[in-house]
Each structure stands twice: as structure tokens, then as C-alpha cells.
Amino acid sequence: LYYFMDPESYELIPIDESLLGDSFKFVTENMPCVVMSYKGKVFAVEPPNFVELTVTQTDPGFAGNTATNATKPATVETGATVKVPLFINEGDRIKIDTRSGEYLERAKG
């Protein structure tokens, strides 16, 4: 079971893992999600469409590695693996589309 809190009533809503899709591998604690219910029964939970996460492990890029569209695997803070461009390093924050699981860009700021 996972617990989600209603930000208005502070009510804790227990949700079975089976209602959470693959996109939840990108969700961190305290991240706002949309919980959909009908007559008090939860039928779906949606994370934000885009999240910014920190790369915790990836192979270093090498100078001169400029092959177009070349990617490498990177693990983010939630433990999920994403294919990223060669210039991304450990500690970088990246923006990910939770619907497709794809790297979008290096996070700004």
C-alpha cells in the first residue's frame, strides 16, 4: 500500500500498488499527484507529466563524444533508469516525461 495525502483535508488515502502504473518509478516523496475516484473508490492515480530528478549513477562522458543521438543509461534518485545523452553526468538534474519515461532536457536552474 502507498499513502497519498489530500492537501486540503490532510486525509491519508491508501492506494494499492496495482493502481500505480510504470510512470510511478519517477515519483518522489511529497510529489503532487492526481488521485481520481468515483463514489469514494480510487480508480486511478496520475503523477505529474514532467518531473525533474537528479542523476545518481551514469558512466562519464568523454571529450569528443559527439555522435548524434548517442545515449547511455543513467539511474535517477528514485532508482529508475533513463537513456540520456552522453554529456549528462552524475549529479545533473534532468527533466523526464513520466508518460514515456524519456529524457527531455537538462533541468534549468
TrEMBL record:
Elongation factor P C-terminal domain boundaries: 51-106
Keyword Protein biosynthesis on entry: yes
Domain Translation elongation factor P/YeiP central: 1-43
A GO cellular component annotation in the UniProt record: cytosol
Keyword Protein biosynthesis: yes
A GO biological-process term: peptide biosynthetic process
Similarity-based family: Belongs to the elongation factor P family.
Protein function: Involved in peptide bond synthesis. Stimulates efficient translation and peptide-bond synthesis on native or reconstituted 70S ribosomes in vitro. Probably functions indirectly by altering the affinity of the ribosome for aminoacyl-tRNA, thus increasing their reactivity as acceptors for peptidyl transferase.
The protein, known as: Elongation factor P
